[in-house]
Description:
- There is one protein chain.
- By secondary structure, this protein is of the alpha/beta class.
- 40% of the residues lie in helices and 19% in strands.
- The protein has one domain: Rossmann fold.
- The protein starts with 8 loop residues before the first strand and ends in a 6-residue tail after the last helix.
- The mean pLDDT is 91.
Amino acid sequence: MDTENRQLIVLVVDDNTAAASAIAEQVRELGHQATVVLEAAAAIQSASSDPPDVVLTDIYMAEMDGYELIRAIRANGGLMPIIAMSGGKEGYDTLGVAKRLGADAVINKPFRREDLGEVIDRCVGRLQS
């Protein structure tokens, strides 16, 4: 299927309401649909019942973190691209760990809309890696 001009459904997972809204707005400005979920447990349910084209998840969340979300989606057979995002933690390779757990790509917060678009495109095969 040619995804070049297709609007993608992106599941945005972040427990910070303001951050989730801002990221969802960037996704929409890129021409995609954004569904916001504020907790990982709800994201797991959403990803299995109505799989999005891409999952964009924060790592550090209160109830269940992004690492657990990535593992759960992969354990449930979810094959959609997962992009992990984080502002990081001093002295810890947050996003490197996310990749080792099954994230397809990572992006540091804060990020520019153009950078997010490039990562999404790369994950869905629109750009050569």
